């Protein structure tokens, strides 16, 4: 059973939208990695934002998915987030894309940093249904080849994971600044994958050999967005 936690107007809420573009608009979408910075900075109620490219394979992938881009937004409160689809930044992308889908989330665990800051406010809520996970890392330059050598094994391991509903590699720079979003049936199934042999082996090598300059791990539960003003 999928359990969604309703957000009140004064609670932080996180949105992750995947926009898919037709061939004739993919160059436009790529350029937005820079051109959309100013509109994002002017969007009311944003605490943190990242516009990222995505990987073309299963989960993390070195092959780019040139048709899909991800927009991660951390809203100061539901009051700001509930009008997201009416905002200039959403309309900017929605008018050019072929389709899009937004995951609304509430952070229940986080450690580490993203560009020197912790973007998510943790709310002590127990995960009783599906969970989402974002893992992000900045790879040390001299460790890139070592990191890349384990990518295929990691992807194969995730592809066979029980309870994995969806996963997508997201990131700011190929190979150097990478993240993965995953959506699981339950916290128990996510943890079963995290502690199984192949994945655990990679994590142990990461820590022992110091691959990352910076890393972040965050867990979320699905959140239902408060009604927008237009819905009332």
Structural features, described:
The chain is an alpha+beta fold and 232 residues long. It has one domain: Alpha-Beta Plaits. The chain has helices spanning 26-35, 37-41, 78-81, 88-94, 144-149, 151-159, 187-194, 197-209; strands at 5-6, 13-20, 46-55, 64-75, 99-112, 131-139, 164-173, 177-184, 212-224. An eight-stranded antiparallel beta barrel has the order 2-4-3-7-8-6-9-5. The two termini are 28 Å apart.
* Mean of pLDDT: 83
The dominant shape is globular
CATH topology: Alpha-Beta Plaits
Span between N and C termini? 28 Å
* Portion of residues within helices: 25-40%
Low-pLDDT residue intervals, each spanning 5 or more residues = 1-5, 228-232
Task: Tell me which oligomeric state these chains represent.
Answer: single chain
Biggest sheet details: 8 strands, antiparallel, barrel
CATH architecture call? 2-Layer Sandwich
Briefly, what CATH class? Alpha Beta
Q: What pattern of helices and strands is seen along the backbone?
A: EEHHEEHHEEHHEEHHE
Structurally, the number of domains stands at: 1
Structural class: alpha+beta
Strand order of the largest sheet: 2-4-3-7-8-6-9-5
Strand portion, in percent?
35-45%
* Number of helical elements: 8
Question: Helices, strands, pairings?
Answer:
Blueprint: E1 5-6, E2 13-20, H1 26-35, H2 37-41, E3 46-55, E4 64-75, H3 78-81, H4 88-94, E5 99-112, E6 131-139, H5 144-149, H6 151-159, E7 164-173, E8 177-184, H7 187-194, H8 197-209, E9 212-224
Parallel strand pairs: 1-9
Antiparallel strand pairs: 2-4, 2-5, 3-4, 3-7, 5-9, 6-8, 6-9, 7-8
């Amino acid at each position: 059973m999928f359990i969604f936690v309703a957000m009140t107007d004064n609670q932080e809420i996180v949105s992750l939208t995947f926009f898919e573009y037709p061939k004739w608009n993919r160059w436009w979408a790529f350029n937005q990695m820079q051109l959309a910075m100013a509109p994002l900075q002017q969007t009311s109620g944003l605490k943190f934002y990242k516009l990222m490219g995505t990987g073309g394979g299963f989960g993390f992938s070195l092959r780019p998915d040139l048709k899909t881009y991800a927009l991660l937004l951390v809203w100061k409160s539901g009051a700001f987030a509930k009008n997201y689809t009416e905002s200039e930044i959403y309309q900017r992308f929605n008018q050019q894309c072929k389709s899009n889908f937004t995951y609304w989330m509430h952070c229940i665990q986080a450690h580490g940093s993203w560009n020197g800051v912790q973007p998510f406010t943790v709310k002590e809520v127990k995960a009783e249904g599906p969970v989402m996970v974002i893992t992000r890392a900045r790879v040390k330059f001299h460790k890139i080849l070592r990191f890349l050598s384990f990518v295929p094994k990691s992807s194969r391991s995730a592809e066979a994971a029980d309870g994995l509903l969806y996963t997508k590699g997201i990131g700011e720079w190929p190979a150097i600044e990478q993240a993965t979003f995953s959506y699981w049936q339950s916290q128990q199934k996510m943890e079963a994958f995290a502690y199984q042999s192949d994945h655990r082996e990679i994590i142990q090598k990461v820590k022992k050999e110091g691959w990352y300059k910076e890393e972040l791990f965050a867990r979320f539960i699905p959140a239902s967005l408060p009604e927008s003003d237009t819905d009332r």
